[in-house]
Amino acid sequence: MRLLDAQAIVIHEFTPDKIPRYAILSHTWRDGEVSFQEMKDFSPEQLRGKPGYRKILACCNQALSLGIHYVWIDTCCIDKTSSAELSEAINSMFRWYVTASACFACLDDYSDGPTPSELIAPVQVTFFGYDWISLGTRESLSSIVSCITGIPEDMLHGRNFRMATIAARMSWAANRRTTRPEDMAYCLLGLFDVSMPLLYGEGEGAFIRLQEEIMKSSVDQSIFAWGMNPEYTGDYDDTACFPIPGGSKMNDWYIRRGTVSKPPPELHRRIFSLDPFAHS
């Protein structure tokens, strides 16, 4: 595992039995991020003008203020020119969030936020604005986070997320948008304790593969039913309905136990709403 020395701003590599305490950054990639190759080959003076480098320095300063001397940042700690390394990193990501001493969630705008794994896995999550002023912790903002994501508040306070059904866990990513459709499936791997190879180019087929991997180790039948057109107007019952994580067509699909249809609006709002203010 590669970690960035927060004091020297130098990347070090550690074997699994020698990993020191580290903080981890949750953020949305923007133009001007610093890659692993740039961190290795360029001087601080050459990188100082990049927005991503300023974010790295802010993350490092925050870690040092907590007495943590290393940080993990995906943009510069993964060599993305290696498909094997990228695949290993994405499959290991959940574990790295679990073992981090702190997670800093940088909310530089309102277009997207942390993945469900990034909200649930770390022992500690603190949200920061673009100026790196603290907005609060996962616990202090749990009612807002729960309203937006559908993750139950008690699970944001430490209750075992595995108590939730597969369909419910999928629904926690319903509002997410990803640049590549495959990433919608890949960001959910840790929530279901599964691993699978990365195949960029397969599109929404990645989500099908994710379900197949889940079915190999789970008897939870909430995974089986697929939804159809959201304009469907057939009969409904009181079965719990959940939105499927979406990007493009996936946003129009729903999962529910034992049947296939669109949930009635009032039931959809009551269970897991796509409208973050529907619970207020």
Automatic annotation (TrEMBL):
Residues 206-228 form the DUF8212 domain. Transmembrane segments: none annotated. Pfam families: DUF8212 (PF26640), HET (PF06985). It comes from the Eukaryota. Residues 22-111 form the Heterokaryon incompatibility domain. PANTHER family: HET DOMAIN-CONTAINING PROTEIN. This is HET-domain-containing protein. It comes from Rhizodiscina lignyota.
